Amino acid sequence: MSQENHVYQSISHAIKDHGVTTIFGLMGDANLFMVDSFVRDYQGRFIPAAHEGSTILMAAAYAHVSGKVGVATITHGPALTNCATALTEAARGHVPLVILAGDTPVDNPRHLQSIDQRGFVKVTGAGFEQLRTPATACEDVARAFYRAQVERRPIVLNMPADFMWEKADYDSQVLDVFTSPGGVVEGDILDDAIGMIAAAKRPLILAGGGAVGARDQLVQLADRLEAPLATTLRAKGLFNDHPYNIDIFGTLSTPAAYELIAQSDCIICFGTALHDFTTDRGKLMKDKRVVQIDVDPASIGGGLHPDIAIVADAGLAADTIVYWMNEADIPASGFTRELDVDTLTAHPAGLTTANDGFVNFVYALERMEEALPKDRVLVTDGGRFMTEVWCRLSVPNPQSFVSTVNFGAIGLGLQEAIGAGLGAPGRPVVLFSGDGGFMMGGINEFNTAVRLGLDLIVIIANDSAYGAEHIQFVDRKMDPSLTEFHWPSFVDVAKSLGGDGFEVRSKEQLEEALAALQNRKGPYLIELRLDPLDVPRMRI
C-alpha cells in the first residue's frame, strides 16, 4: 500500500526495507535530510566520517567482513571527487556497495559544485544509477541494490538535491537477486578437464576470492586427489588446519612451497583471475597444465590463458569432478604422501637484532603472531611492510582479512579497519599501517575510531620514510634523504586524538607494549621504530 512522503523519507524507508542498519557517511546539502530520517524515523545507525573517501572504504570493509551490502552516503561535487581512489579500490575489489550520492539541483546547471557525476563515476569502474524522478525514488533505490549484488561492485545512486522535498507515493520495492550458483558445463570440455586432472601425478588446488564459499567441496576434492591446497592472498586462511595446506600461492609462498608449486604438473584453479603476483608473472605456471574454473567468464584468461576453462560455480564444479573420478575409479595421485607441511609453511626466520633505537620488524611480527588476539580481524594498509605481515600474521578465515591493495594506494587502512570493526562487533581489529600511509589517511579517522569506542589495535611500521621509494635510491647508491621524514610521535598523536599508545624501540619495549594491550580501552597504537635500511623488501 502506497503512502505519500517526501522523497528523502522514501529513500530512507527504502534503505531500511533492504535490511540496512548502518550507513557510513558525511552529510551535505543533498543528503542531510535523508540521513536524519534514516536515524530518527527508522532507528538506523549513521557513522559520520571525517572525509568522504573514508565513507566508501568503511562501507567496503563492513561489506567484506559482514557479508552484507555496504552503504555509504555523501553529497555532491567535491564530495564525490574526494572519493575517486576509494571508489576505484572498491570497484577493483568487487565489493557490493550502494553509495547514495547527492547531485546539484537539476534546475541550476551553473551551480558552483556541478560536475558530470556520471562521467566521473564511470572512470573509477563503479556503476551509476540515476534517481530519475521523485516518483521513481523507491524503484531507483531497489535497482541500485540489485545491481550492487549482481555486478559485485559499487553502484552510485545519483540523487538531485532539489528532489528531496518533493512529494511522491512510497511503494516498497526489493528486487529479487539471482544468487543460485552457475551450472557446471557438460560435454567435451568437462571430460577434457577431468582427464587432465586424472592424468596428473602432482596436482595442486588453488582457491581465490571467488571460491571462499566452496571450502568444503574443495577440501573433498583435494582429499580425493591427494593434492595439496593453496590460496591466493584474497582467500588467505581458507584452508586453515587442513594437513596439506601450503598457504599463499605465488610470490608470497615460502621458498619450499614455491619449489613444490614449480614441481607440480597440474594446477586446478577455482575463483581466481590468476594475477601476476599469484603466478609470479607466469613463471609458476610454466610447463604445467592449468585448469581455470570461475563463475565469471571475464575472470578467465585475463592474466594467463589456461589449458582448459570452465565457467561454473566453484563448489558445484568440484563436486562434479569428484563424482566422475569416483565413477571411473580413478586412483589418487599420492602427491601429498611426499610432503612435509611444516617445512612448506615455514617462512625464513631472519635476524632478531636491530641497531640501537630500533626493533627488528620480522622479530616483532613473530611475537605479535603469538601475542595478539587470535579471533582478530586483520587489516593492512599499503606499503613495503605489508608483505611480511601477510606472510607471518594468521587470520581465522578470509572474511577476517582485509587488504587495501586493489589500486596500489596507501593511506586507506584505518578507514577500512573502522568498517571491519563495525562489521564484526565484539571482535578486535588489528591494523598494520606504514608511517606514510597513516599520515596520508589514518590520522584523519583515528578519532572516529575513538568516538565509536572500537577495539582497534593500530600498529605503525615507522621507518620514517616512504619505503618503496627509499629502497630504489639505496639500490642505485643514491642519496635517499628525499624519501625520509621526521614525523611527530604517533603515540602522542594517538593520545591527543583520544586513544592510547606505546612506542617500541627494543625487544624489551615490545614486551611492555604487548603486555599493556591486555588493559586497553578503545583504540590503542603501537609505534614500531624501524631502521629504514633494515626493513625487508616486498615479496612481489
Give a description of the structure.
- The chain is of the alpha/beta class.
- It has 3 domains: 3-170, Rossmann fold (3-Layer(aba) Sandwich), CATH 3.40.50; 188-344, TPP-binding domain (Rossmann fold); 361-529, 3-Layer(aba) Sandwich (Rossmann fold), CATH 3.40.50.970.
- It has 20 helices and 20 strands.
- The chain has helices at 7-17, 32-40, 52-66, 78-81, 84-92, 117-124, 137-151, 188-199, 215-225, 255-263, 276-279, 314-327, 341-344, 361-371, 386-392, 413-423, 435-452, 467-475, 490-496, 507-516; strands at residues 3-6, 22-25, 45-48, 70-74, 97-103, 127-130, 154-160, 167-170, 203-207, 229-231, 245-248, 266-270, 289-294, 308-311, 377-380, 401-403, 429-434, 456-462, 500-504, 524-529.
- The strands form 4 sheets. Strands 3-2-4-5-7-6 form a 6-stranded parallel sheet, sandwiched between helices. A 6-stranded parallel sheet has the order 11-10-9-12-13-14, with helices on one face.
- Helix 5 crosses helix 6.
- It starts with a strand and ends in an 11-residue tail after the last strand.
- The model has no long low-confidence stretch (mean pLDDT 94).
List keywords for this structure.
Rossmann fold, 3 domains, six-stranded parallel sheet, globular
Write a concise synopsis of the structure shown.
The chain is α/β, with parallel strands linked by helices and about 550 residues long. It has 20 helices and 20 strands. The protein has a six-stranded parallel beta sheet, sandwiched between helices.
In the CATH hierarchy, what is the architecture of the largest domain at level 2? 3-Layer(aba) Sandwich
Strand arrangement in the largest pleated sheet: 3-2-4-5-7-6
- Shape, principal axes of CA atoms: globular
Report the CATH superfamily of the largest domain.
Answer: Thiamin diphosphate (ThDP)-binding fold, Pyr/PP domains
Secondary structure tally: strands: 20
- Helix percentage range: 25-40%
Residue ranges: pLDDT <50 for 5 or more in a row? none
User: Roughly how many Å apart are the termini?
Assistant: 57 Å
Treating each run of at least 4 consecutive H or I residues as one helix, how many helices? 20
CATH topology of the largest domain: Rossmann fold
Average pLDDT score:
94
